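Hello,

Our lab assistant flagged a job as stuck in the queue for most of the afternoon. It eventually completed. Since we weren't sure the result was trustworthy after the delay, we are filing this so someone can double-check. Below is the sequence as submitted and the structure that was eventually returned. Let us know if re-running is recommended.
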Amino acid sequence: MKVDLTDEKVLFGTLEDTFQLMERLIKDESPRINQREVGVVHFVGQGIVRAWGLPHVKAEEIVRFPGHTMGYVFNIDPDEIGIILLGPTEQMRAGVEVRRTGRVLDVPVGEDLLGRVVDALGRPLDGLGEVRTIRRYPVEREAPPVMVRAPVTVPLQTGIKVIDALIPIGRGQRELILGDRQTGKTAIAIDTIINQRDKDVICIYTAIGKKASDVAKVVADLKEYGAMPYSIVVAATAEDVPGLQFIAPYAATSIGEYFMEKGRDVLVVYDDLTCHARAYRELSLLLRRPPGREAFPGDIFYIHSRLLERSTHLREERGGGSLTALPIVETEAQDISSYIPTNLISITDGQIYLTPRLFQKGILPAVDVGKSVSRVGGKAQLPAYRLVAGDLRLSYSQFEELESFSRFGTRLDEATRRVLERGWRIREILKQSQYRPMPAAEQIAALIAVTGGVMDRIPIEKVLEAEAKVRLAVREEASDVCLRIEKGEKLSTTDLEIILKIAEKVV
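-- returned structure --
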């Protein structure tokens, strides 16, 4: 029964009226019994707990502890359940209650996340107030089936010459970036994000197990170069519990899938999956899962494959959106055949390998062209690149082979010397400073100039200076050619001659 408490007779009636009102309310109110399952924690570890009770709990369900700390059901054994904590463990102790919530782990998704820095649960870390979204997606979602996927044909321009020309990345592709620590892996990912300005690509940078200072530097770089308005940073730093580090890449992918399903193009960077694998190993060992090779659990391959399989290009009837993945993995002593790198190489559609040998020589980005590959290849490359990419890769491969042999002798024939001279200039032209992504038309103009022999007579130390002149001149004098390149049209032999003439004139 509903009672109007604004009625003056109710508010200011006699004591008898009040008793009558209370009797009517009690008579109409039928008691309801709410049944709740309650468990008890009996063991607390670093980032995990084990509990008794909760007989009907489900895998991957969220449970709640006193103090609003949440947990993620990971193991369900006959006599206990293993729970990954998603919050601080300082107040956790044996004997506290744990309650079911009846829902799986989810994350807020929506346009309001753009420009924000959030943790793996979608909580703000940037001090800009609450994230106001009306939808939530489960963190673990099924990958799109094969029949709704379309071929990868649209290029994702990184703005880096050596990658766009020789190791092209397409929208919907999974391209691994690997190399030893401090060889420039994150720099390539950040440059790629900066290059997506005005290209209608949503970028999500996922920091997994990084130092908080490193994450702050990435955020500062994105703000400085105007990339933050179309970017989202999902951070699970080294100071966070292992559970947050484990779910961070899945949460970032769910956020990206929201935009992909709206028909948008999304780029997700996972930095890095080595830390993700280590966090999963730590949790698995604490929860007594059987260890395998290098103490990793047996399903270490599966946790990454189910993550990266969610990257795809959808068919037009599904909106035509795409989700491109750039996972980063760290190698030790240049060993790309170790356990985690090998797993990820087999899952992804190619890899960009950075070597400390080139980094120490100052050849940046330190991409080893011989060990890098894109399995999508020229299908996801602007047609204009195909005019120069074949000759460029061939020339550079011949040069690298000859360079290693030429160190053993001083007497070289003229043809070998010409190959070496051309190769040194190609290597010089492929150098590029960080935070300086280059438009496709300018890249192609520089590459045509070096492969066409225009740079052969210039001293090596002045190649980059000459390249800058060629780029500026082509942009000013052949703007129509540049426009056609960026629209994805093929270059004709006439266009090629125009670029070569301009290059010869200014060099």
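-- support follow-up --
The delay was a queue issue, not a problem with the job. The result is valid. The chain has four domains: 1-32, 38-104, 149-381, 384-506. The radius of gyration is 29 Å.
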